[in-house]
What does this fold into?
Amino acid sequence: MRYKLLGNSGLRVSELALGAMTFGAEEIGVEIEESRKVYDLFRESGGNFIDTANVYAGGRSEEFLAEFIADERERVVLATKFTGPTRGRDVNAWGNSRKTMMEAVDASLKRLKTDYIDLYWIHSRDFMTPIEEVMRGLDDLVSMGKVLYVGVSDSPAWVVAQANTLAEWRGWSKFVGLQIRYSLIDRTVERELMPMAKALDLAVTPWGCVGSGILSGKYNADPKAKGRAAMRGQISDQSLTIAQEVVNLAQEIGRSPTQVALNWVRQGEGVIVPLVGARDAQQLQDNLGCLEFELTDEQMSRLNEISQIELGFPHDMLNMQQARNRKVDNHRA
It folds into this structure.
């Protein structure tokens, strides 16, 4: 496991982050014994970056992690999030307001049994709280020592850019990380969010890198599962086509489709730290296998070509203008 600086900061994190959403979750997760095995395997492999949220499994994910990190708190880069609802029928129990933020951070600190959170994420934009209130509140948490760094998840590029510009102007703590959904079957973040992250020197921690399991090839291999998923609108023919190419490439190089899908994300431009989640240690071991190799330029191009998207206006127009300008320059030369 190698390490990277987390965006415009001095914080060093492992090149993969462990997503703890499955810890304690009833339907998609596992109980504490298996969660401990997943955590231990990640740590034994050199991973130090752990990501959770206050709403995962109703807070049980944070409680599990409190036990796991108890003897090595200083060695772990611990990230958690707030925004989601924590109490029913309470209008201030969710969102990004100062009131919600302050209550949420104290509740997370209590569940995690720690004095500080290394990286505190806004889980998503709430459409109501002024960005000045959000950034001032986060800066106050940093000043109080409850939080060391701040990041933002699942928000429009213009909101993130506005927030960091305001923070820089006011001398407040800026976002150092951006958490987004990104995979071969969902590249829409390449239109605005990825270029913004590169311009603002934000580390990107993508989730959903295997496309909810589609890129593992399981639907291609099981027609019945494919049919059920298609009927529920969970899968498209294009997604299956991309997944099949991932499967074909994986077979050619003797790797798993999951490892290929993760490496396509991991080898992108900028500081990218994919989030990997697992229901058991065996699944995590397969994920970690992506660190044992890299895709060649030809293999990356092959996957890029089959999964490419239209960037839309104004990107397509500007790219055409740039191409025309290059032709003129070459002719003059």
